[in-house]
Amino acid sequence: MRVDVLTIFPDMFPGPLGGGVVGRALEQGLLTVVAHDLRDYTDDRHRQVDDIPFGGGPGMVFKPEPLVRAVRAFRAEDPAARVILLSPQGRRFDQSVARELANESHLVLICGRYQGVDERAREEIGEELSIGDYVLSGGELAAMVVVETVARLVPGTLGSHESLSEETFTDRGFEPPLYTRPASFEGREVPEVLRSGHHAAIERWRREQSEERMRRRRPDMVRDGATAGGI
Ligand code: 9D3
């Protein structure tokens, strides 16, 4: 999979994507992430990407020309590219959206900044994703969240193996309590069942524990089932 990221802060990439599962996918060539400087798509001496909002109001807005020029260049190069604006008003990104995007061969992620993006550029882009209801300063961290989540699902990565081989309660999201050595830590013991060697009993205990946690902490996931959380 190829991911192009359009940003006024290309130096933020690969950033944390350079380590872990995604870093390995990058090294192995399973995934390519290229960050592009939006200012390279300007045509004025000051490489200006923003301007004041018509009608007044605080802050600045991304001008349409550099964004539209960049999007048309990416689409001309690859008509199959899925072009997405990271935006607080977008469709909520979740694991099922990640699975959908993992089927694509080419993503173009556009990072907003300032107060937002000129409406005509938004329309040209066509698709918007938000990673949740909280305020970030821009789309870059959101783009990294999307890349990290999608990359884990690309065939050949460690994350994709995990999700294929372990189709138990963990694919609904909640881990049961996990323990490693020592068996006794500061007087707190590992539950006896986990040390019993009784695999059916262990499996039953883990399922009960994970379902109980989900009921207590994420009743929305229990009610809506795999369609809501679905991780
Ligand atoms: C505080 C300003 N907001 C009220 C008018 C608008 C606003 C504009 C731009 C709020 C945040 C941003 C920058 N955020 C993103 O570009 C962003 C984002 C986010 O803030 N939260 C969750 N997902 C995303 S994806 C992109």
What integer is the average pLDDT? 93
Q: Count of helices? A: 8
Strand content: 15-25%
- Determine the fraction of residues in helical runs and give it as a percent range: 25-40%
Shape: elongated
Rg, rounded, reads 22 Å
**Which ligands accompany this protein?**
ligand 9D3
List the secondary-structure elements in sequence, H or E. Answer: EHEEEHEHEEHEHHEEHH
Structure commentary:
The chain is of the alpha/beta class and 231 residues long. 35% of the residues lie in helices and 18% in strands. The chain has 8 helices and 10 strands. It has helices at residues 20-27, 64-77, 95-102, 119-125, 140-151, 158-165, 199-217, 219-224, and strands spanning 2-7, 32-37, 50-51, 61-62, 82-92, 106-111, 116-117, 128-130, 184-185, 188-189. The strands form 3 sheets. A 5-stranded parallel sheet has the order 2-1-6-5-8. It has a 3-stranded mixed sheet with strand order 3-4-7. Strands 9-10 form a two-stranded antiparallel sheet. The chain is elongated and about 70 Å long. The model is unreliable at 165-170 (pLDDT under 50). The site of ligand 9D3 has 16 residues, from strand 5.
Attribute tags:
single chain; 231 residues; alpha/beta; five-stranded parallel beta sheet; three-stranded mixed beta sheet; binds ligand 9D3
What's this model, at a glance?
The protein is an alpha/beta fold and 231 residues long. It has helices at 20-27, 64-77, 95-102, 119-125, 140-151, 158-165, 199-217, 219-224, and strands spanning 2-7, 32-37, 50-51, 61-62, 82-92, 106-111, 116-117, 128-130, 184-185, 188-189. The site of ligand 9D3 has 16 residues, from strand 5.
